Amino acid sequence: QVQLVESGGGLVQAGGSLRLSCVVSGVAVRFWRMAWYRQAKGKERELVAAIFTSGNTNYADSVKGRFTISRDSDRNTVILQMNNVKPEDTAVYYCNHATYWGRGTQVTVSS
Prior knowledge:
The protein contains no helices and eleven strands. By secondary structure, it is an all-beta fold.
Protein backbone atom coordinates (compact mmCIF):
# COMPACT_ATOMS: atom_id res chain seq x y z
CA GLN A 1 0.00 0.00 0.00
CA VAL A 2 1.35 3.40 -0.99
CA GLN A 3 1.41 6.10 1.66
CA LEU A 4 2.59 9.69 1.35
CA VAL A 5 3.14 11.82 4.45
CA GLU A 6 3.97 15.50 4.06
CA SER A 7 5.59 17.77 6.63
CA GLY A 8 7.38 21.09 6.85
CA GLY A 9 4.58 23.54 6.21
CA GLY A 10 3.96 26.59 8.37
CA LEU A 11 3.84 30.35 8.49
CA VAL A 12 6.66 32.27 6.81
CA GLN A 13 7.23 35.87 5.80
CA ALA A 14 7.47 36.86 2.17
CA GLY A 15 11.02 36.41 0.94
CA GLY A 16 11.68 33.57 3.36
CA SER A 17 12.19 29.85 2.82
CA LEU A 18 10.49 26.58 3.67
CA ARG A 19 11.45 22.97 3.07
CA LEU A 20 8.65 20.49 2.56
CA SER A 21 9.24 16.76 2.89
CA CYS A 22 7.18 13.81 1.73
CA VAL A 23 8.03 10.45 3.26
CA VAL A 24 6.92 7.70 0.92
CA SER A 25 6.18 4.07 1.69
CA GLY A 26 5.08 1.29 -0.63
CA VAL A 27 6.98 2.50 -3.69
CA ALA A 28 10.59 3.52 -4.36
CA VAL A 29 10.72 7.20 -5.28
CA ARG A 30 13.68 6.75 -7.60
CA PHE A 31 11.67 4.49 -9.92
CA TRP A 32 8.61 6.67 -10.40
CA ARG A 33 7.44 10.15 -11.22
CA MET A 34 6.81 12.07 -8.02
CA ALA A 35 5.22 15.49 -7.76
CA TRP A 36 4.07 18.32 -5.55
CA TYR A 37 0.74 20.02 -6.13
CA ARG A 38 -0.93 22.86 -4.30
CA GLN A 39 -4.44 24.12 -3.80
CA ALA A 40 -5.23 27.63 -2.65
CA LYS A 41 -8.59 28.45 -1.09
CA GLY A 42 -11.25 28.72 -3.78
CA LYS A 43 -8.93 27.54 -6.54
CA GLU A 44 -8.25 24.28 -8.34
CA ARG A 45 -5.35 22.06 -7.44
CA GLU A 46 -2.33 22.81 -9.61
CA LEU A 47 1.00 21.16 -10.35
CA VAL A 48 3.95 22.86 -8.65
CA ALA A 49 6.84 20.58 -9.55
CA ALA A 50 7.59 17.05 -10.70
CA ILE A 51 10.65 14.83 -10.77
CA PHE A 52 11.03 11.89 -13.14
CA THR A 53 12.97 8.65 -12.96
CA SER A 54 15.65 10.22 -15.18
CA GLY A 55 16.12 12.98 -12.64
CA ASN A 56 14.61 15.54 -14.97
CA THR A 57 12.29 18.05 -13.37
CA ASN A 58 9.60 20.44 -14.44
CA TYR A 59 8.04 23.38 -12.67
CA ALA A 60 5.05 25.65 -12.87
CA ASP A 61 6.05 28.97 -14.41
CA SER A 62 5.06 30.75 -11.21
CA VAL A 63 7.71 28.94 -9.14
CA LYS A 64 10.58 28.54 -11.62
CA GLY A 65 13.83 29.83 -10.18
CA ARG A 66 12.44 29.81 -6.62
CA PHE A 67 11.42 26.22 -5.88
CA THR A 68 13.47 23.05 -6.26
CA ILE A 69 12.18 19.48 -6.19
CA SER A 70 14.53 16.65 -5.30
CA ARG A 71 14.49 13.15 -3.92
CA ASP A 72 16.45 11.29 -1.29
CA SER A 73 16.44 7.66 -2.36
CA ASP A 74 18.03 6.45 0.89
CA ARG A 75 15.21 7.98 2.92
CA ASN A 76 12.61 7.42 0.19
CA THR A 77 11.62 11.03 0.50
CA VAL A 78 10.65 13.77 -1.94
CA ILE A 79 11.61 17.32 -1.02
CA LEU A 80 10.37 20.70 -2.14
CA GLN A 81 12.73 23.54 -1.26
CA MET A 82 10.86 26.82 -1.42
CA ASN A 83 12.89 30.02 -1.53
CA ASN A 84 11.86 33.65 -1.90
CA VAL A 85 8.26 32.73 -1.15
CA LYS A 86 5.43 35.08 -2.01
CA PRO A 87 1.94 35.57 -0.53
CA GLU A 88 0.50 33.92 -3.63
CA ASP A 89 2.32 30.71 -2.67
CA THR A 90 -0.12 30.33 0.22
CA ALA A 91 -1.88 26.99 -0.22
CA VAL A 92 -2.13 23.42 0.97
CA TYR A 93 0.72 21.48 -0.60
CA TYR A 94 0.19 17.84 -1.55
CA CYS A 95 2.63 15.09 -2.42
CA ASN A 96 1.57 12.89 -5.32
CA HIS A 97 2.43 9.59 -6.95
CA ALA A 98 0.08 8.34 -9.68
CA THR A 99 -3.37 8.18 -8.06
CA TYR A 100 -2.03 8.46 -4.52
CA TRP A 101 -2.10 11.67 -2.48
CA GLY A 102 -0.90 12.72 0.91
CA ARG A 103 -3.09 14.67 3.32
CA GLY A 104 -1.30 17.90 2.59
CA THR A 105 0.61 20.48 4.58
CA GLN A 106 -0.46 24.11 4.93
CA VAL A 107 1.90 26.85 3.76
CA THR A 108 0.99 30.42 4.66
CA VAL A 109 3.09 33.35 3.45
CA SER A 110 2.57 36.70 5.12
CA SER A 111 3.30 39.96 3.36
